[in-house]
TrEMBL record:
The lineage of its organism: Eukaryota, Metazoa, Ecdysozoa, Arthropoda, Hexapoda. This is Putative nuclease HARBI1. It comes from Bactrocera dorsalis (Oriental fruit fly). Keywords: Cytoplasm, Hydrolase, Metal-binding, Nuclease, Nucleus. Its main location: cytoplasm. It comes from the Eukaryota.
Amino acid sequence: MESIAAAIFLEEDGNTSENADAKVERRRLRDMCDPFQMSDELFKKNFRLNKDAFKYVLDTFAEETQQSTLTSLSPLNRVVAALRFFAEGSYQRGVGTDYNVGMGQSTVSKSLSHFLEVMQRKLCPEWIKFDQSEEEKIQAKQEFYAKASFPGVIMCVDGTHIKIVKPSEEGFLYYNRKGFYSINAMVVCDNRMRIKSIDARYPGCNHDSHVWGLSKLRSHMERRYREGERNAWLLGDAGYPLQPWLMTPYRSVSQGSPQSNYNMRHSTTRNIVERTIGVLKNRFRCLLGARELHYSPHKVSQIINVACALHNICIYYKVGDLNANEFNFESRQEEEEEEQSSDPDYTSIANRIRDNILATF
């Protein structure tokens, strides 16, 4: 396929006539673009979705783009550009030079912003839902129990840092204890690796427990507990507070002790949320630490939210995981979490629940 890099680079380096020629060339390449002619495997490699999932996203986006100011771009052009960005995490200029895209940097920027606004409004409420039916809860408990005989688990929670450039305002708030600027995103997944809740609002300086404490999910779980729900909880690591609806590991345990056995089973069961985050970042490489998103915190939050919705769409449409030999996973840095105090209103109840679980092993 012909290269268009030379034509694209004329936008900034050439004269007015050459820029006009570059724009004509880009439009010609966009008009020629038909990604559905790709093989299924190449299509998935380029867009991280299969063709059925892509068509669903395209149809959803097209319904909302009738009044767009980007009149020269079809919905297909804009979805192609956005998904190439999500897939590779390249700079907007690099996305524009892609033979499937053929856009200038400013056009890619406007197109991506429009895509994010529409998808966050349309896809996220539809595809990221915490609620479970009673049947789904029973199934989740059974599948989690099958991993390590840990009872009552319906979901797992963890935080992950999404690397960003230093924001122009209050940048110090985004500098995390790992030594870079980030958004600390709280991810909750179920037994099928579907993301059931995402909270990507808080700067990287915030600890996982702080994000959890301010989340709507924490309030939702407490309300369900007060309304009488029992024997259903999330699993979180030691960075989270022990609560009747959130089971965490014991601290400072002796090897071979019952508490150590509990922690082993807890870790084995909870591992699914770490794998979910790994699959999410591997599929949508714009979230990988090596990419460092060059956007405002608000826009980064939109990118994270939409990526999570797309992740769930991939599961629904049975898009297989990417070839681990071809795409690098971001290794999760294991580190000792700061011990979190239990919720003072529920300390004795939560400890009793955890001890009762330990007694079943």
